[in-house]
Known about the structure:
This protein has helices spanning about 1-55, 80-90, 105-120, 150-160, 180-190, 200-205, 210-225, and strands spanning about 55-60, 65-70, 70-75, 95, 140-145, 165-175, 195, 200. By secondary structure, the protein is α/β, with parallel strands linked by helices.
Amino acid sequence: xxxFLSLTLAMALMIFFTAxxxxxxxxxxxxxxxxxxxxxxxxNKTTAESADAAKKSxxxxxxxxGEEYRVGNITKGNTHIVADFIAENVGxxxxxxxxxxxYPDNYNECTELAKREQQEKARPSIANKIDNFxxxxxxxxxxxxxxxxxxxxxxxxxxxxxxxxxxxxxxCTSSSEYFIGKEEIQxxxxxxxxxxxxxxxxxxxxxxxxxVKRDVDNWxxxxxx
Length: 225
Ligand SMILES: Cc1cc2nc3c(=O)[nH]c(=O)nc-3n(C[C@H](O)[C@H](O)[C@H](O)COP(=O)(O)O)c2cc1C
């Protein structure tokens, strides 16, 4: 009888441990199955996100204040207004190109000087410099339309840095809603990829900035998703 009891106990223990063992194995399988299905996703997402985050952007612009045709005196230039909307949207810093010799506040004087600079293919000097330019992959570049071309100081800018491998996304303000400058930028910023630009009517930046912000946001959505 004693022998029978100890045999029954031994069998009961065996059944118990076998059951525990198989359930432990199941839970192990489940964990490893869960980790294989989730691990690669997490990894891919992290890689994609960090690649995006690693792309560093800077919004560079030249813009004038003072007397503005059919608007009056302006304290923040039209292109400057667009630049700030872009910077806000993409979370980038801005850099304002400042001339060593500021352009006249008087509109007519400025147009005459700009015409002369264009005829002479001048390279007006820039007073400030971008720190760690090499760190940036994407440069948003903004300027006003001056005599159907970019202001000559933009050419000075393009010749001052190495754009090889960078992406330039141009934008421009003018008397109407059109864009100029892509071909010229491509020609001077050697090795850069230049995207199609945005053209905004300058007057609208002062009169209706909310509509400009909407256009900027829609344009950036098309480019950056
Ligand atoms: C020197 C000068 C030349 C200009 N030439 C043109 C032009 O050829 N075509 C045009 O549509 N607007 C022209 N404009 C108007 C400017 O492009 C427009 O007002 C622009 O929004 C000014 O931008 P800002 O305030 O950022 O300097 C000219 C303005 C200036 C001061």
